[in-house]
Design a protein that fits this description.
By secondary structure, this protein is mainly alpha-helical. The protein has four helices and no strands. α1 packs antiparallel against α2 and α1 packs across α3. The protein is globular and about 25 Å long.
Length: 76
């Protein structure tokens, strides 16, 4: 199984859709990523930022971008 690089734009789109009420399943289908991947990034960003604050979300997205394809960074 190959890892697919995920961009900050894709993560931001996932967060935006989730904050507007879309389900993780529908976001995964639209983006072409696995549900577990979508859930992982949403939970990582949600734990760091208020989803209504765009600047906080941008900062949190940058913090969780993977160093290696397919793996989010642990942020402390």
């Amino acid at each position: 199984m190959a890892f697919v690089q995920i961009s900050s734009k894709e993560i931001s789109d996932m967060i935006r859709k989730y904050s507007k009420g879309k389900s993780i399943k529908s976001i995964a289908e639209e983006s072409g990523h696995d549900r577990k991947t979508v859930r992982k990034y949403i939970q990582a960003v949600k734990g760091q930022a208020d989803l209504a604050d765009k600047e906080a979300v941008k900062k949190a997205v940058k913090a969780v971008l993977p160093k290696k394809p397919g793996r989010p960074r642990k942020v402390q």
